[in-house]
Amino acid sequence: MHKGMKYRLDLDSLGEVEIPADAYYGAFTGRAVKQYNVTGRRAHEHLIRSFVMIKRSAAVANIKTDAIDAERGGAIIEACDTILDEGKHREQFVVDMINSGAGTAFNMNTNEVIANVALEILKRKKGEYEHLHPNDHVNMSQSSNDTYPTAMHMSILMGLGEAVPALHILIEALRSKSDEFSGFKKIGRTHLMDALPVTLGGEFAAYAEAVSNATANLASGKKALQSVALGGTAVGTGANTPKEYREIAVEELARISGLPLTPEKNMQYGLQSRAAVASTSAALRNVALEVGRLANDIRLMASGPVAGISEIGIPAVHAGSSIMPGKVNPSLAECMNMVCFGIIGNDTTVAYAAQAGQFELNVMLPGMLKAVLDSTDMIRNFVPVFAANLIEGLTANEKRLQQDIENSPVIVTLLAPKIGYLKAADLFKESLKTNKTIRELAISKGMVSERELDALFK
Questions:
Q1: In the chain, what is the greatest distance between 2 CA atoms, to the nearest angstrom?
Q2: Angstrom distance (rounded) from CA 410 to CA 417
Q3: In the chain, where does the domain assigned CATH 1.20.200.10 lie?
Q4: What is the pLDDT of residue 61?
């Protein structure tokens, strides 16, 4: 309790709770905030919007099915519009992103805020729940068990709507760099050892293809997320819902959200299984595996400038060292690696949570949602920076690339069809021992002419 702050008494099934007088949340939330100080982060914007849209859609369906009178239902709709369209009262969603199992605490936080905003619309005071109640009216025909999974699917779809365009920025940057680097030949590497020549452009074209394919695989998870469990209430049987409520509520929810939502055909499945979320998280992990891999390659190719591979130059975004003047580090690639590690870790959280459901409900929803939204947020926030400030600024060290091709004995592989595998192997060993190039040795021994060698190497 803060000295000088005014309080009101709110009542719930456990008794009275002191709530700040100007707060729009109520007793359940007042109790919850004392228990769930987990991440120090309040609900994600996508979750708030999703839940408020669900409450609005439920009110519309309840009015149309005569489950609630038009006055109370209309006040709930207007309260939701105040939060959605005017952006008011967002600070009242105070429950931690990770809270009670099944997200009951956040559902009630939402119910209480909407109820008290609606009470003011009805010219009543906050907490006068006998006129409009968080459970009886705002939560009518609903349960935390069907609203939170629905909000979870919606929130992830919103997150993907931001993350996928960011990935396409990276894909286009890689393709552009592939075109720019198409004429630069270089030594390929397998097992981190010299291999046959490739082009630098070819490598970047492969990176673009990898990220493009991984991004495309997000589509299947996205499709599965469009089926929502709203209307299943507590255990997926639709208990306490009026006839046609479910169809009306989901149709209205799809309309106001702009998301192509449809009712889950098997509502018990919709409460039990989080396969759609796990599949989406796994697809995000696979994106991270590909992006992290190319970030590793860039760090290796840029290593140097004297004692490393030094095939490409990287743009300086800030000083690389606090002690070594002039040092340029692959800082953005390193950051990208850490982002990818975070996404992989988030997927592990989702995988464990997805299998932890029991019987009619998976209660691990808040932890799963936080993990997936953390992943989509990191992609949205950092991938465009990585693309613009690192990928687009990469340069080719043509002199070093050509020098490595000439000096590497592995290009003797191109002579093997003409002189045989064993003679080629002897030539490889002699090149390493004498420090003479394959070109010098092959011509001096009369194995091929310089013109023939140029044609082979080309």
A1: 102
A2: 14
A3: 154-228+265-398
A4: 98
* pLDDT for position 277: 98
Q: Check: CB of residue 135 under 8 Å from CB of residue 84.
A: no
In single-letter form, the type of residue at position 314 comes to I
The stretches in the chain having pLDDT less than 50 are none
Q: Which residues are catalytic?
A: 321
**What does the pLDDT read at residue 326?**
87
154-228+265-398 in CATH: which number? 1.20.200.10
Q: Which CATH architecture is the domain 7-140 placed in?
A: Orthogonal Bundle (1.10)
d(CA 391, CA 412) in angstroms, rounded, equals 33
Which residue intervals of the chain bear CATH 1.10.40.30?
Answer: 408-457
d(CA 129, CA 150): 26
Any idea which fold 408-457 has?
Ribonucleotide Reductase Protein R1; domain 1 (1.10.40)
| Confidence at residue 143, expressed as pLDDT on a 0 to 100 scale | 98
Neighbours of 381 (CB within 10 A): 13
**How confident is the model over 315-344, as pLDDT tens digits?**
999 888 888 888 999 999 999 999 999 999
If you search the block for the tokens 């990818």, which residue do you land on? Answer: 340
Q: pLDDT tens-digit profile of 186-203?
A: 999 999 999 999 999 999
- Tally Cβ neighbours within 10 Å of residue 398: 15
Q: Where in the sequence of the chain do the CATH 1.10.275.10 domains occur?
A: 7-140
User: How many Å apart are CA 201 and CA 197, to the nearest integer?
Assistant: 12
